[in-house]
């Protein structure tokens, strides 16, 4: 770009909305790089390309789930063994949610997730699995009828919150706790319209609830009313009744 006195200004390169100057100028043009088939493949690991992959995951997720009826997300451990009381509770829960008119969404994996999907399928309902790419992941369980696999946890979490009207949380580990506390945070901060969160298993969740009450609330890190953001039960029908009542379904 020329200067008023005829002197030459800084070298400048415009790449769409990006401006590069001086030593940051890249050789060639965007079109040249697009059409050049002899370049290396390192570009697929760059942040701008990751943005496109993230966008594509949102598009695929929205497209796959947009026409779902009201749904409840069921979380729980992938390590829950088939045939155990926890597993059978998950099966009953999935079926009862379908009977109440809900689709069932899980993380799509084995264990408690498989149990809820199995219950939904056996009740002739809509059984959804939102999987995640992990080094040790076993893939979507056989009871998933609509499945979407994600690379990124935060995209997957958005799908849970966007397409579920409530959460039922079976006993689980760190991943389950992550989903639970993110949901509680979104409700507490009113980032989402309040929806029911039910912890299933009083013995399993009792210690956590006591810690929240006797340590977190007692030390002023949360308020007493925050304990009203969730319910705890051992009864499948009560769990379904709570999410049905609070969603107005």
Which structural traits does this protein have?
alpha/beta, seven-stranded parallel β-sheet, two-stranded antiparallel sheet, 8 helices
If you had to describe this structure to a student in words, what would you say it looks like?
The chain is α/β, with parallel strands linked by helices. It is 42% helix and 16% strand. The strands form 2 sheets. It has a 7-stranded parallel β-sheet, with helices on both faces. A two-stranded antiparallel ribbon has the order 1-2. Helix 2 (47-65) runs parallel beside helix 5 and helix 3 (85-99) runs parallel beside helix 8 (236-247).
Estimate the global geometry from the Cα principal axes. globular
Write down how many β-strands occur, each being a DSSP E stretch of 2 or more residues: 9
Secondary-structure class:
alpha/beta
Q: How would a crystallographer describe the biggest sheet?
A: 7 strands, parallel
First-residue to last-residue Cα separation: 63 Å
Helix/strand order = EEHHEHEHEEHEHEHEH
- Uncertain stretches of 5 or more adjacent residues: none
Name the average pLDDT. Answer: 88
* Helix percentage: 40-55%
Radius of gyration: 24 Å
Count of helical segments?
8
Instruction: Report strand order across the widest sheet.
Output: 6-5-4-3-7-8-9
Strand content: 15-25%
